[in-house]
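**User:** My hope is that you can spare some time for a protein that puzzles me. I have put the entry right below:
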Amino acid sequence: MNRLRYFAVTTAICLGTFMVTLDISIVNVALPAIQHDLQAPMVSLQWLIDAYALCLSALILSAGPLSDRYGRKKMWLAGVLIFTLGSLLCALADTLPLLLAGRVVQGIAVALLIPGALSLITHTFADNRQRIRVIGIWSSVSALSLIVGPILGGVLVHTTGWEGIFLINIPIGIITFLLGQYGIRESADPEKAAFDPAGQLLSIAALGCVTYGLTEAGTHGWLHPLTLLTVTGGIIFLLLFLYTESRVEKPLLPLADFRRREYLHYNLASFVIGFAAYTNVFFIALFLQKAQGWNALEAGWRMSPEFIAMALFAFSFGRIARKLSIRLILGTGLLLTAAACGLMTLLTPYTPYPLTGLILFMLGTGMGLSIPATGALIMHAADPARSGVASATLNMMRQTGMTLGGALLGTLMIQRAVTIAQHRKLPDAVQMITGVQSGELTTTVQHTVYEAFAGGFNLAMAGAALSAVWVFILIFYPRRCKIPQEKGKITS
């Protein structure tokens, strides 16, 4: 591969990831502006995140086999094109349903883009050391987009309105498509690709029901018939999905792979990273604006320590991996993530920013170490001919964690905030927390709202911290995996 093609491939893959990851962080900062402009309640705002993540996590299992069967380049470029069109639809939306439709289109596209990136890296870079380096660069670019997102989002919201956060994806998408068309070579393994339409339908039904039920619990309560019906239905669909996967010849989710303890545990780590760490982007943006009173631009740059740390450590991942085992790097990342989430349970509306920024830097360090570590461990263990399935499984676990984390922790946050507001005798407590605040609030009422949101945020972070501690204990205790740990190797 000549240098020009090498540059085109690496840049295209990184730009594709940059675009879709930018969309996560940039949308979070714009949520209050969208809420005000479209007069949307808080639960509906949560669906702007969950609709995107739900489509991604539900369809990502199909995307991997589609890439293996019909061509990894072809499917990845299709994802770039669809995402660009979805961004245009979002930018033109003047109602919440139309904006949600655009987010659904984006989520479908990202299901092709995210697993496709790791699969393309695996097939393009055969040398382990070179592959580790590119995975580190790819992860650092993802972190860079999270740095740029809040700041750029704040600027765009203040200068062009929230529509600008979607319009920016269009030129990026065009450049990415052209570079990918030139640089990426086509590859496919149709004889080993999965084909399981029944499993796909069941997985969509399972994730859809559970996520919808957990999200609606914030409005109707945990014991409301709608909540119980949808969550129970989701569990039933999940059991049927697992049964189907154990019977079909070429399943979407190869259950046999999970019989290997280390493979199961690393995928669970990916799930928890999505559940505890990725959802933090949503919660921190709301905390800074709803509990501390900063505007979108101010909240954006205050989130930057997390993403700066992510970029620094992800970019250095290849160098760190030459000196330490990947498993040790993963463990360190999980502990730092758990510690940061634990410290966030102590944040209040009056916490000085330097302390908040330090905690965010710790969280970013944990994510910058653990995200590329899980990808490297799982992709190294996978059959190259089934790299699409392995990458899809890894990302499905992470995105499912993000979807369920956003729904469950978001519901806990809203309910806790409402409870605190009601306990403080706040008039119209439910409307103050879940609806659009109109008009000027008195200082006393405003501080009560701040404290209520902070209390809800603290509870959500406690759940995130416990999940990270759980997966760390699961992986490292009571006994270590019987796999040699060599420095400079992908193996754990």
Summary: The longest helix spans residues 387-423. The radius of gyration is 21 Å. The chain has 19 helices and no strands. The chain has two domains: 3-195+250-476, 196-249.
